[in-house]
């Protein structure tokens, strides 16, 4: 194993400083790390291969979890008749401002405009009416991977664009209990993806009435804290009760032969997660990718000054790559200086860099450098197969622990409106307070701080002391934060 | 290994007879095998989990081939400004009748209508202008998995719907040679997916001028013969030369420092492949799935008449499932008669059925039945791990060989227009003839038979004898067929 360890000096890159201009930093990192780029169509973006590969590495384990929990992938049409969307009152009120309408097809005006799906509750309820007759047909557990369209006025890479990619699960159950269990089960899947794959610790819990999904009885979400202290809602899971099934007259014959409405749910996680990974782990040098979702886990940089040295490294490489069989490795042979390459792969957040030069080879070693802290270790070539996976595992944990430490450092418990106002004036992070649950309080806080309730902390029960905002009896603890 | 083998009798199912009403049979199989269903939106369909799982099993190996050949997945916006599409004259003329237009967004009329992508050449050329400066930036090898929209007047499940799923590859090269090699390379990938995964033998070659993609210099395609003798175009790969790059003013600085236009290509395979699998292998009992793409490769049907017998099977099952570790297995414990289950899994095309009853268990065996020919074999339980994968492999080959035999039986070589007309009047299949290459001949044949040229047979060189249609000197052999 390693003996030599030393700290390297950093490099300055052509991106704005995170601490000075976070939104500017975010834009620079997304574009310069080649995750995504502006598109020629207002409000949309182009996802470039490096960004798409991160999405694939989040999508695949999530798809596996979704299948393991008994769901099946369907595909439903993207264009939904306007009248379908108008059947659930709250839903249409929530989404109508974001509609994009198809009014012409095949050279003719359509009789009824078609809406590009902002989400598919209405389409799926309309279709599944034909499949659900009896309690024996329940539960129906559907999922689909697709693109959705919401007319956003201010676009931000991955966080808010007029088209984005996601999965949307939609399920139908005989009883409220089963549906509510489903809502919790899928939130837990999202927590796993966020924490175990993306290394982002989350608060998971219910949203307030104000913050819930249009048409839901209640919504739950996972929320992460970004490096600027703001909250990012990373996935949601909603309980609809009978709201949608009543609106779509979707009924089944129950066990006692009576007509009943199934209880339904929906839940989704999107390409927004790529943005979350950037904002939760990045630093002034650029991206920092958790090894489990990094498209390139290890980059190998050959260091040579002559053709002879180059040949020496070329000869040693097959053995090195053999050692790294199960790892996503890239060898960077480009005709550029090593320093340029170090910079670029740091910007792209590759967790480990291996430098191999003639002096390393003479000692039968390679220099392995962590993106996390630039810690450099000499590792014998024959031990790479053991050492590198262990180092990647450690980096995965370290990123999570660092993000958790950051969140804990920036989470305070407060008991008065004044303290909340002062906090959001001068600090960044989450404020946890006792709360009575009234939306008037949310309005008050929002007006004075721009912060909103993020999630009601689960298991908080009836907290001690009165509501921090209005002094009425508190019924729960809630986390406040400035949200994306 | 097996000793006992016997032929079982068939079952009649509630689907139209293939030989009497092929389109009706196709519709019935697609719906009753639960591959897809009508959607409430005209011209579109709902892909159900069983159909989507087949698609996933085609998509995944294709994605792997696309990556292995050096391409990267991107995601480009689905909505394309109308003006982008109007820049390449042939392209817009070909696709304009199929446009679906978004004219309103966020409650307002858009200044410029957005077209739901029928294909993305125009968007991708517009975006990649910014990435391609020098010959060093080439080739750019992109792919994307997405949904596309074409206003079809007559919808058919999987074959022709107003929205469908596919991948579209778009590449840009320094030289014509490289681009043409790319076109051939991707056609070969499609041939592999069609033949090695879907067990459908294909003719691969160039399309005629009449049949090429709107905007291409030439198109190539793979064409399969369905059980009704008709041709299905299963994937295409196009060479654009400089057509699109000139139209979008996409240039690069070449090796001698002059501005040049890259040579571009595009290629796509879609959910149409699911329809191909149905129509190439199905029979009066329903679907017949090649094992490599079957969502369920083996279904186990427990046969019992008492609780005691049931328990006996339950106790033996873990051992059986252990043997079938790498196989996609489903155990059907539903409360239905075995005959009902046999029928249903035949309809769904599951390649192998394993029946396990107390008598089988007493002999330490299970009865394994092939969907292909209902051949039944008794296999010792301890040999399932060896026997079942070998049987699946054999079925995969047998389906391909059967389809190839069928195609050969229904392909004739003809040398006169009269013979061609007579063939398509009385027979089904492909007619191969010498041809001079003039589109007037295609018109003549189409008017008299509805058949069109499918592909120019590669390597046919200058054939013997004159053009079968008009008597002018022939330059090539071409396959004629009635096409979907």
Brief write-up:
Two copies of one chain form a homodimer. In chain A, 34% of the residues lie in helices and 27% in strands.
**What kind of oligomer do you see?**
homodimer
Number of continuous helical runs of chain A: 14
Count structural domains of chain A.
3
What proportion strand of chain A?
A: 25-35%
Strand order of the largest sheet of chain A: 4-8-9-15-12-11-10
The radius of gyration computed from the alpha-carbon positions of chain A, rounded to a whole number of angstroms, is 25 Å
Q: Any guess at the CATH architecture of the largest domain in chain A?
A: 2-Layer Sandwich
**Helix content, binned percent of chain A:** 25-40%
Q: Which CATH class of the largest domain in chain A applies here?
A: Alpha Beta
Q: Structural class per helix/strand content of chain A?
A: alpha+beta
Hey, which two chains have the biggest interface? A-B, 52 and 52 residues
Let me know the average pLDDT of chain A: 94
Low-confidence blocks of residues of chain A? 1-12
Specify the biggest β-sheet of chain A. 7 strands, mixed
- Which geometry of chain A do the CA atoms define? globular
Q: Tell me the name of the CATH homologous superfamily of the largest domain in chain A.
A: Bira Bifunctional Protein, Domain 2
Briefly note the CATH topology name of the largest domain in chain A: BirA Bifunctional Protein, domain 2
- What is the terminal-to-terminal distance of chain A? 44 Å
Q: Strand tally of chain A, please?
A: 24
